[in-house]
Amino acid sequence: MDPAALLAQMPFAVTAGVELHSASPAEVTGRLPWAPERCTAGGVLHGGALMTLADTVGAVCAFLNLPPGATTSTLASATSLLRAVRGGAAHATARPLHVGRSTIVVLTEVTDDDGRPVASVTQTQAVLGPA
């Protein structure tokens, strides 16, 4: 599916500066460039910005694994922040851990430009039937 079209459906992610690079049911990738307006003290990319990146790519991954006519909503999201990002960009890769009838669990790994771990996020998404 077209990453730009998927991202366009998520206005907050667009406003936050998230970019999607690839999107398939098996893997979704994206990035968030470092920018001073996305930082906390000391020029460190804000944890909430990293979580926005991870939530975005994770949600797209869950969406792409839904059965026809279903929608999704986040039930839980657990984030471990591992390293500061002080420049460059944060890169995220989301992959499904479990695709079931009632839930989808997605693991999103966030790295820096050197491939070092920045964050690990596990999301549990509800599979909601047609309204």
TrEMBL record:
Residues in Thioesterase domain copies: 42-118
Coiled coil: none
GO MF entry, a single one: 1,4-dihydroxy-2-naphthoyl-CoA thioesterase activity
Keyword hit for Hydrolase: yes
A Pfam family matched in the record: 4HBT
Entry keywords, A to Z: Hydrolase
GO cellular component, as recorded: cytosol
Name of this protein: Uncharacterized domain 1-containing protein
